[in-house]
Amino acid sequence: MPTAAARALFAGTIFTSAFLLFLVQPLIAKQILPWFGGSAAVWSICMVFFQCLLLAGYAYSDQLVRRLRQRRQAQLHAALLLASLATLPIVAAPHWKPAGHEEPTLWILGLLLATVGLPYFLLCTTGPLLQAWLSGTTLAAGLGRQVYRYFSLSNLASLASLLCYPVLIEPRFALLPQAWGWSTGYATFVLLGCGVAWQVGRAPPAQAAPATTPAPVAASPDDDAAPGPRRQALWLVLPALGSWLLLAVTNHLTQNVAAVPFLWVLPLVVYLLSFVLCFESDRWYRRRVWLPLAALALLLCAWGLQDSLGSRLQTALPLYVGGLFLLCMALHGEMARDRPGPRWLTRFYLMLACGGALGGIVVGLLAPRLLPGYYELGLGLALCALAGAAVGWRHPAARAAGLALALACLAGLALQVHDDRAGARLLERNFYGTLSTLDTHRDDPADDVRQMYHGSVKHGEQYLAPARRREPTTYYGASAGIGRALQAAMEAAPGRPLRVGLIGLGAGTLASYGRAGDVYRVYEINPQVFDAADREFSFLRDSPATIERVLGDARLALEREPAQRFDVLAVDAFSGDAVPMHLITTQALALYERHLAPGGLVAFHVTNRFLNLPPVVQRVAEARGLHALYVHDEAEGSDLRRTDWVLVARESATLQRARLRDAGSPFPKLPGLPAWTDDFNNLFGVLR
Questions:
Q1: In this structure, which topology does domain 7-205 adopt according to CATH?
Q2: CA-CA distance, 2 to 61, in Å (whole number)?
Q3: CATH node for 472-686
Q4: Helices 345-361/229-251 angle, 10° precision
Q5: Which residue among 154, 208, 401, 489 sits deepest, i.e. has the most Cβ atoms within 10 Å of its Cβ?
Q6: What is the pTM of this model?
Q7: Which pLDDT band, with edges at 50, 70 and 90, does 142 fall under?
Q8: φ, ψ for residue 603 (rounded to 5)?
């Protein structure tokens, strides 16, 4: 095959593999997200899994080119590609749905391995393996270190895939067609990969090729020498810190700044963009430009950890996304400067993948178990400064600057920890995020309260004065939609006990409405919330009602249960760190209907600073032929919070009861909004 055609085949295969590589991540995450309560942590675990599989793929490529002859390499790889077709389509099997008692991290990792393990592994091998084949045969001889431009191409394809999914694919295709479409694309990739393997198996080794013009990118004198431990350590540490910062910045933005679940997109975009620029050519990275900018980013990001600058969305978003870009340009630029010649290409990529997986494991798997708060960002900033000192160790000024920056970052982290712990009674963290409680003292001791926070969002509070402990607070006052709904249900059936369902517990405030004989059935996915509500608050134990507890995702639990005949079902899960969209679709509402008693209603708590959710519930109700009432409560003249609730019932008469009849407000307008379903729901369309 002519050289130009060979390069085109290799480039097309690499581009296709990288595009599919990043397309499968949001696709499979969207499939399994509803099974784990819509938690943003699902994305972090998926990232760790994909990074570890990337490491396995790069290790396979490194060993393949070092241990087997060229023809054998091609034969084995083609056989694996063909075998992987048996795993299609990539649809998560129903038996992987959790029952509620499983450890979510290990369950997700097993689910991903069974569903997409082999195809993803082979996609991961494509970049380094094909680059090694390309530089090691006569198919495209003379590339030299220009072969690394294919790594830039693969990251460009990944970036395009990441942006295409939410804009072009997710709004237009249901989940099953998405899975089949991806599987068809993967089958095309297998054909391309087998074509490449066939060409490689027939091509003579590169040493048999005639001399060609040297590559324009200059190689360092020791390109062909075996890389020493210090150099390989650098190849490991720099990408590890880049991966660390990617996940740490994502956690900080989605947990401590704004409860907007898709803020993971922006950090990942700038992370990939830094790879594209640094490996496209040497002209993008200049030490004298990027290192001072990275140092400034370290200082500002460290300062923002304990200052309002880093907690307000308007300032934190540009600060941390911009800071991540500058730091990744420095980290990946230094890595690109030190890339070896083609002989050690697969080893270089192996260390890069090992570093990426290491950073992901520390932040995605270890940090939630070892750190009580989101402190991995401060640690990552300090380690970046130390890495800068190590890179410039031979220069006293650079060494001193790096060490000083590390101390400054540690100081910012220490202040963040101090601020978090000041007055905190409880500070815990698990797969679902951070949970904290603190006491707030006011001018009048009768107004003192204990508050619960999940990340940056308040999930309830209780008066400390014994005489006021059973008063409904925050979003749950008598004038709020849920307060009116519960009182209306009591008045509609005087003397009859109520059966109430609660999706999302918080501090347990709604139990304060319970009466003797009532049954309050609580669905909560986070076991720490049950524990905190029992230890830190008394709403549950003070309530005369019977409290039933169900641990696990509410929708999965309701699917398994017989009809509960709820008089009121409160869906209170849309103000936290991630919006569980599977709880606000037409299929979800149909499930809620099955569990309602005659004359019962569903109350959706849709108070949210960033998302306009009332029209979503309205459209879903209309699609089911139900009636909806929007209750907006400013809570003026009280300590209660401004709230938005949408009440949904089968009959309009249910919403015309006393306390509800005159409480409605006009729904906010959102033209063109379709009814959300399990397949079609998109938060971009409801941003405020």
A1: Growth Hormone; Chain: A; (1.20.1250)
A2: 25
A3: 3.40.50.150
A4: 40
A5: 154
A6: 0.81
A7: low
A8: -110, 115
